[in-house]
Amino acid sequence: MLGDQIKKLRTAAKETQTGLAKKLSVSKQAVSNWENGNVQPSVDIVCRIARHYGCTTDYLLEMHNHTFYIETTYLTEDQQQQLMRIAREFEKLNKETGRFKDI
């Protein structure tokens, strides 16, 4: 549920509803309503939330199919390449062991 994802990201960032509301230029009540599932945020707001937390809209909407994204903006090119090598090694290991099947 979108509201659960917003709350999970907000609390992980140790951010209050009021703090998130200020950053998005909305009311604290709007954030509360999203998190409680009373109202859905607009597409524009969903995009702004994703940018704010460095995630994808697919993640917020729980359409990510076990895909995991890591924000690499502040990493060097070498650090990004190291992460890709590690990810490929895990992918290879999981395929070899049959832990995850291709969809």
The CATH class of the largest domain is identified as Mainly Alpha
Assign a percent range to the helix content: 55-70%
CATH topology of the largest domain: the name is: 434 Repressor (Amino-terminal Domain)
Radius of gyration: 17 Å
H/E series, N to C? HHHHHH
Could you name the key traits of this structure?
2 domains; mainly alpha; single chain; 103 residues; 434 Repressor (Amino-terminal Domain); elongated; 6 helices; 61% helix
Topology summary:
Layout: H1 2-12, H2 17-24, H3 28-35, H4 43-53, H5 57-60, H6 77-97
Helix pairs in contact: 2-3
Describe this structure in words.
There is one protein chain. It contains 6 helices and no strands. With 103 residues, the protein is an all-alpha fold. It folds into 2 domains: 2-60, 434 Repressor (Amino-terminal Domain) (Orthogonal Bundle); 70-103. Helix 2 packs across helix 3. The mean pLDDT is 88.
Outline of the structure:
The chain is mainly α.
